[in-house]
Amino acid sequence: MHRSALRQALEDYLATWASGRPVKGFDLARERMATARFLEFLDSTPHCFERSHPVGHLTGSALVYCPATRRVLLTLHRKLGKWLQLGGHADGCPRLAQVALQEVGEESGLSQFSFWDYEQGLEVPTRPLPFDLDVHLIPGQLAHLHYDVRYLVRADSAQPLKVSPESEDLGWFSFEQARELCPEESMQRQFAKLEALA
User: Fold this and answer.
1) Which class does domain 2-197 fall in?
2) 42-74 pLDDT per residue, tens
3) Is cis: bond before 128, omega within 30 of 0?
């Protein structure tokens, strides 16, 4: 049941971002390929939500945004040494939106935050709707792929932050600062999408 819910969310995601929403640098062909890759992986194994699956696994993450200050919250990942959005492993949970929300609380110390219904006004049945999809390699002795389903979360940047053991640092950054800190295409794509919406 939950697998079918994720499938529907992925299909709704593609339909929403393929609807002509004006986003600078948006690549519809890339979005179609990414969605197809996620759907294929979802159908390939019953263990796609487990971190023990050696080929890779689905993860949930969130780009946290403060509308009042137009800043995004990023974490300096301890193992990867990169500034990234918050997120983590599903550990068997197929509700990736809830995984993302849980990770936001655990990795930031924020006490008040919620999904930002960026799709409001569109006839999209999935709530919350994924905001971005990305497949990336996690290096190491047991290198594997993360199939990351990303959501958009809003929070007040005046709240205190608490750095988790998985992170070296946390901070709120303007779009300009975030782009300088995060040169990876997958991060730049998220900032472009968010800036277009904001």
Assistant:
1) alpha beta
2) 999 999 999 999 899 999 999 999 999 999 999
3) yes
Contact of 6 with 96, CB cutoff 8 Å: yes
Answer yes or no: pTM beyond 0.70: yes
Tell which residue, 62, 127, 52, has the closest CA to residue 92. Answer: 52
Angstrom distances, CA of residue 165 to CA of 30, 89, 111, 170, 179: 34, 15, 18, 11, 25
Q: Which residue in this structure is represented by tokens 């992986």? A: 41
Distance (Å, whole) CA 119 – CA 94: 22
**Composition of the chain by helix, strand, coil, percent to 5:** 35, 25, 40
CA distance 21 to 120: 13
Report the alpha-carbon distance of residue 122 to residue 135 in Å, rounded: 27
